[in-house]
Here is the input.
Amino acid sequence: MGIKLESKIPEGDIHEKWKNHKDHMRLVAPNNRGKIDIIVIGTGLAGGAAAASLAEMGYNVKAFCYQDSPRRAHSIAAQGGINAAKNYQNDGDSVYRLFYDTIKGGDYRAREANVYRLAEVSNSIIDQCVAQGVPFAREYGGLLDNRSFGGTQVQRTFYAAGQTGQQLLLGAYSAMNRQIGKGRLQMFNRHEMLDLVVVDGKARGIIARDLVTGEIQRHSAHAVVIGSGGYGNVFFLSTNAMGSNGTAVWKIHKKGAAFGNPCFTQIHPTCIPVHGDQQSKLTLMSESLRNDGRIWVPKKIEDSQAIRAGKLKPTEIAEEDRDYYLERRYPAFGNLVPRDVASRAAKERCDAGYGIENNATGEGVYLDFSSSFVKYGKEKANELDIHNPSQEEIIKLGKKVVEEKYGNLFTMYEKITGDNPYETPMKIYPAVHYTMGGIWVDYNLMSTIPGCFVTGEANFSDHGANRLGASALMQGLADGYFVLPYTIADYLADDIRTGPISTDLPEFVEAEKQVKDRIHHFLTNKGTKTVDYFHKKLGRVMWNKVGMARDEKGLKEAISEIEEIRKEFWRDVKVPGSDNTINMELEKAGRVADFLELGQLMAMDALNRNESCGGHFRIEYQTEDGETLRNDEEYSYVAVWEYNGEDLNKEILHKEDLNYKYIKIAARNYK
Here is the structure.
C-alpha cells in the first residue's frame, strides 16, 4: 500500500494556528451542501455532535449506530464531568494551563498543536451545551460549578451530578432529532458497519448489516466519519458497554487507515473490583469521587488478611492504622493524581499483600468518605447556625451534602455490591477503561484514507499515553461540534460537482461479497466453542500480559498466544442461528474476530516501545520509586502502523516525531 504521513499542522504561533487555519480553508457554499452526502458511524458525543452539526449546515447525513437509539451510546456512561478552561473559580486556570496539564498527563506523547486546539475550543463547548439546556450544576451565585479531577491543581471540570455524559448526550441527541425532523439526517438504528468501501483511493461508502432483519446494505457518500469509540473490550472485562467494539476502526485500518499507538490503554483506578469468573463486565465509579473520598489500605498486613477473611470490618481499623498511600506518596496532588499513577499505586499495594477484597486475587482498596462527612457536616452546621452539634449530627448533615453531590453514584454502588457506602467505605480496584490509541489522523482529523475522518476516542486522539479525567467528553464534543465541520468542508470542496456515488460500483459489490462470505463462514462452521469462550481466553492473555504491567517476555508470549487463539477461533467457533434475524452471537463473532487481530497489534506495539509512559508500563523501565521511565531520545514519536496483509507480524511501523516548542519536557512529577 505505502501510506504517507502528513500531519498538516499549520505554520505559525500555536496560539494562532487554528484561527489562521480556519481563515484559509476552503468552504462549501450553503447552496451546494445539499449535493453532498456524509456517513457518520457512531452516535455518541463525537459522532452525534458531528451528525447534528453537519446536518444543520445542510449536508445530507446518514448516521449509524448498533444500539436501538443514539441515547444508548456509551458516552452515556461518563459520570464525572467535562473539562474547560473557563476559570470560574478564579484559581489560576487558563487555556495554556489546560493545554499543559493535558500534555503532561499524557506523559509527553501527544501532538502539541492538536492539544492546544482542544484546550482553545473547550470554552465554546460549555456555551454550546448550556444553550442546548444541559443542566450543569451551579454554585450559590448562579455560575456553573466546577470540581477537580486527577492531574490538575485547579477546578475546571463542569458536571451534572454523576451523570454528565448522559446529559451531554441528550443535548447532542436533541440536536440530531431536530435535523431528523427536517429531513437532513437519516438515522439508522440497530445497524452495524461491517466494511468501508474505497473507490479510486477515497472513502466512498460502507457495507452495513441491519441487526434486526439481517439485510446487508450498501450506503454511499462523499465522505465517511468514524466516531465509534474505543476498543477496551479487547480485554473482555472492562468498564465499556458490552456492545462496544473495535470493528469500525479495524475495518478501516485493513483498508488503509494507519493505526496510532495501539498499546496506549488507560486503566481506571476507581472501578468496582472483579467478583468472579462468570462476570461479563465491570462498573466504573466516577473519578469525581476522588475529590471527597480518600483511598487507603491497612498499614498492617495482618489487618488486610483479617478483612479478606471476613473477621474484621474497615470501620474497625483505627485512623492511625490506615495507609492513605496516595497522600503519602504524592502529597502535592494526593488522591487526585492522574489515573495511571493511582492505578499503579493500588496494584503495588495489592501485590504487596495489602489488598482488601475477598476475591480470587485479593485485589481491592478502600475509597472512604468518612472524613468528608465530618468536614461538610461542620460547614453545614455553621451555615445553619447550629451550635455545639454532636458528632452524630455533624455526620448526618455531611452525608446529606455528599448525597447532593454524588447520590446517584452511591445508589448505583449499593445496588451492585449490596454495601451502603454511607456506612462502609467503597471497594475499588483498577480496570481497563479508555483507549488513547486509535486511527491516526492529521490535524484535520482525516485518516490516511482520503475522505475517511475519525473523531473522538476512535482516533489516536489528543491524550498521549494517558487521558486525564473529564477530557474524553471534551475531545468528543470538540471534534464533533468545533473541528470537523470546518475541516471536512475543506476536503468536500472538491466534490460539489461529483454527484451521487453509485452503489453498483465494483468496489461495493466486492466489499458486500466479502462481508457475506464471512457471515456464511461463521454460520456454517462446525465448531464446538462459543464466541465468549474465545473472547474470555483473549481477555485473560491481554490483561495478564498486555495490561497494567508489561514486560518483554510476557509480550512475546502474548503475540504467539493470541495468534494461536485466533487460529483456533476460525477453526472451532460455533455460531448458532441464522443471518436473517436478530442474532447476537453472530454480531459478537465478527467483533471478537477483529479483537483477535487488534489485540496482537497492541502487544506488538507495546513490545516495540522500550520505555514506560502513561498507561504503557514496561516493568523493565521504571524509576527507583516505581514511576514511569520515559526514553525521550528514542521514543518521542507516535507509533503509526500500516496494515500489510493477514500476517499481522508484517505490519509496517511508521513514526510521527513529536516536537514540543511551547512546553518544557520534564519527568512527570506529582509529588
